[in-house]
Fold:
Amino acid sequence: MQGCFFIGEKFIFMWNNLYPDLYLNSIYELEPQFLKDKGIRGIILDMDNTLVPWGSMDIDPEMIKWIKYLKDEGFRLCVVSNNSPVRGENLSSQVGLPGVWNANKPLRKAFRRALKKMELRPEETAAVGDQVFTDVLGGNRLGLFTVLVPQLTSKDFVWTRIMRRLEKIVLRRINTEKVEEK
Ligand SMILES: [Mg+2]
Structure:
């Protein structure tokens, strides 16, 4: 897929940066051993519609268990969210994870801050999230191993709803390639 995006005169990204390294049907399918085999020691997690439904703070007990499981497997974890510190700290305290808020993904700054908190390099880190244009794009721009997971609910921030339409085009392309690979 050739091409690139510009905002104003600023070069932003290549199409290829929209492709996740891994596309799962559920976040729970993420295999610790698979990541370890790739030399990955830390995971950056998106918050809204990845760990908790958008607009809600009701984290599924299953998700809490899954986070604990990843910690027990030895992974360093950090939440990176475009949402506010108030909402972020609420989640942080529930799951006992550090976080970076008001992240402005897909900008790389917040991902870099997360790497610093985890004391890891990009090649040792995965980024997991439900959005192509924030989580995947931002992670790929920094050279992280990017994992796209389905959104937990169809509810979204209004801007996200617009971006989802573009996202569908990318996802359709990924799905087509998946089928072609088989
Ligand atoms: Mg999200």
